Amino acid sequence: MQQLIRGRVLDFFADPADTEQNHRYHENGAILIENGRILAVGDHADLRRAGLEEVDHRPHLILPGFIDPHIHFPQLQVIASWGAQLLDWLNTYTFPAEAEFADPAHAARMAGLFLDQLTAHGTTTAVAFCSSHKTSAEAMFTAAHARDMAMIAGKVMMDRGAIPAVHDTAQSSYDDSKALIASWHGKGRQRYAITPRFAITSTPEQLAAAGQLAAEHPDCHVQTHLSENRDEIDYTLSLYPQARDYLDIYEAHGLLGPKTLLGHSIHLEPREIARMAETQSRAVFCPTSNLFLGSGLFDAEGLRAAGITSGIATDVGGGTSWSMLQTLNEGYKILQMRGTRLHPMAAFHWATRGNALALGMEDEIGTLAPGSAADLVVLDPRATPAMALRAERASTLSEELFILQIMGDDRAVAQTYIAGRPQKGNAG
Ligand code: GUN
Ligand code: ZN
């Protein structure tokens, strides 16, 4: 069945930082959808047809749904936990909360609520760390598959350095990941990410098992954390005294490459930057988390200049907002501290096509190109009285986007579509 979704339609086909010619905008636009895929995008006058079902979102903006390339499923009740930096925060709040995901009933309930929060905030694809329990990944994939939502997720591998309730072993983590890949990778829209949590919580044996999985499944992503916090780095290097630097630990275990997502990547040595660029490993910037945990200021421009592709992500529950709009807001401020300016066109490119490029999934998500999934977000730049007041003085599309970027959150998300299906109660 075909349907037409009408509004002010915007997407990107190139990075605004590279070229003036980067976006497509149809002021009186529409998106033609069939079986959850985009068939055509253009002016409403050209796409309308008698008898075609039509949803009218004017005057709102319609963009590709947001992509969140780094988030922790079992931390949805850890967000807003007071007073600690990374290692204390993990020990005090995070590991105990993740232990509860051994219970399949808890994991299943939380998986539905997790996906509800993503779509309420306009996020249509996320890359999620689950807990170390196979049940948590089963629950996540089951819930996402039922919604036809493109999720990338993995059971965390962690065999030391936390509490027994969240520890696996090198062998069990290999076996469980292998079984999850067999069940879920490529099933519908689900994909598996091999997920060693970080070097502190993995023995060398476990990182070797992760590297073996990556070699056996080169089409799976790999996700982990790198150089987030100074104490973390010092402790990591003490655990791996033979490593040249933090990245070298992952490199030595065969974990780098274009499918590898390295969360945070803040305090990097020149050699690490050069190797990330050579291996085409991705950095993932998590601005609200980096500020909340006092971790540091990501060098977006420096990594870009070195030829590294970066994503931008919430990192809930170290991150403080589910909203990619709020994530772009805090990202803007961190770039300010670094002396660069994040243009709203570049910001919205980043949260959509840019993150799709970081995942190597730009043919499937992140743009409105025909053939892509009809994963959409409908945004209202006048969603709150304060935004409407500010918008009275906005005369360009860039200004409207910037209001959304700085003042917007889930209230600005009028609707979210997953594979052509509206996720919010009303269609408005
Ligand atoms: N490093 C290892 N685990 C985590 C986590 O859960 N959150 C963050 N922010 N950093 C980590
Ligand atoms: Zn994280």
UniProtKB/TrEMBL annotation:
Co-factor note (free text): Binds 1 zinc ion per subunit.
Cited Pfam families: Amidohydro_1, HUTI_composite_bact
Cofactor: Zn(2+)
Record-annotated Aminodeoxyfutalosine deaminase/Imidazolonepropionase-like composite domain positions: 29-50
Record's keyword terms, sorted: Hydrolase, Metal-binding, Zinc
UniProt superkingdom: Bacteria
Pathway info: Purine metabolism; guanine degradation; xanthine from guanine: step 1/1
Alphabetical GO biological process terms: guanine catabolic process
GO molecular function terms noted in the UniProt entry: guanine deaminase activity; zinc ion binding
EC number: 3.5.4.3
Reactions performed catalytically: guanine + H2O + H(+) = xanthine + NH4(+)
Cellular component per GO, a single term: cytosol
Function as written in the Swiss-Prot or TrEMBL entry: Catalyzes the hydrolytic deamination of guanine, producing xanthine and ammonia.
Family assignment from sequence similarity: Belongs to the metallo-dependent hydrolases superfamily. ATZ/TRZ family.
Name this polypeptide is given: Guanine deaminase
